[in-house]
What we know:
Helix content: under 10%
Low-confidence stretches: 1-54
Strand order of the largest sheet: 1-8-9-10-11
Order of helices and strands: EEEHEEEEEEEEEEE
Strand content: 15-25%
Oligomer: single chain
Number of helices: 1
Amino acid sequence: MVKNTFSEVSADVPTTGEVDGVGRRTVIRAIAMSGCCLAASGLISASPAIAQAKKVKPEPGQRFAHMAGDKEGQLVVPDDVKLGKPLLAYPMDATTTQVHGSRANLLILMRLNETDLEETMKPHAASGIVAYSGICTHEGCPISGEHENPRMALCNCHGSTFDLGANGKVIAGPATRRLAMLPVAITDGTLVVAGKLNGPIGPPA
């Protein structure tokens, strides 16, 4: 059983901090229908946001800001991240609270049972919380669907499934490239970026 958690998302100026230029535009708009996310094809593959993201990627020490919902633009705290439920977020500068809200900087946070984390993944997680690029490597849709297996993340556009307990590897296509993983840590009760993305983001060129 698959449940869609992504109905309509935009990335206009968040309520907290200042958003960079790319993030001032509407980033992703999708409509849930029959368990599918009808996002436009090639949101990332043909977008200049990829080039921008190569310059403004998540950096160690940054925090996370909610992408949408009642807490849009607010700081993500560890208790916000639930078991098996994807939370879409953007990186936030810890000093200026600037939210780097370009679509290429979209991230997915999810809590896993620690027993579901492969040993090589455990140093890059925090209390079972993992972070990945939130852009599907098939056609650039947001990774937003809940899967019956709480360690999996689902793209509602075309059904690609990724194992967040195993470095984001593809479990079911049509995507062929894994999601890039972002190390996280909890410092003074705050969820922070603890490293850099360990691979390319979005669909192959």
